[in-house]
Design goal:
Number of strands: 3
Radius of gyration: 37 Å
Strand content: 5-15%
Number of helices: 2
Order of helices and strands: HEEEH
Number of domains: 2
Distance between the termini: 79 Å
Length: about 130
């Protein structure tokens, strides 16, 4: 038997008012965008002293050409190519080392198995 009785019945909550307390829903879309600040414009940023804006899916310099200095662009492309080649070489070295490790591990397991078989043969002879 429950200590406080079995008559728990919470009161029903009153229904909510349908109409919003704000009158912003009465405004048209353009006015709402201005009032609520929903018009963001084009994204822009400042990177290494260069002002960039995002247009048609690409970052474009606001001053015209991106990075301006063609020599710097060529240097960066050359450095990028060198790093890609170095990365490929290092991946190849890692693959070779993993192959060597797996071969050595397989040989080690075979030698351990042969050693166990030899130990069992010696025990049988005694």
């Amino acid at each position: 038997m429950p200590l406080f009785g079995n008559s728990f019945s919470p009161k029903k909550t009153p229904p909510r008012k349908w109409a919003s307390l704000s009158n912003l829903h009465l405004l048209d879309r353009s006015t709402r965008e201005v009032e609520l600040g929903l018009e963001y414009g084009t994204p822009s940023m400042n990177l290494a002293g260069q002002s960039l804006k995002f247009e048609n899916g690409q970052w474009v310099s606001e001053s015209g050409s991106f990075l301006g200095d063609r020599r710097e662009l060529q240097r960066l492309r050359k450095r990028n190519q060198q790093l890609e080649e170095e990365n490929n070489l290092l991946r190849l070295k890692v693959d070779i080392l993993l192959d060597m490790l797996s071969e050595t591990t397989a040989e080690s397991h075979l030698m351990e198995k042969e050693l166990e078989e030899l130990k069992q043969r010696c025990r049988r002879k005694k």
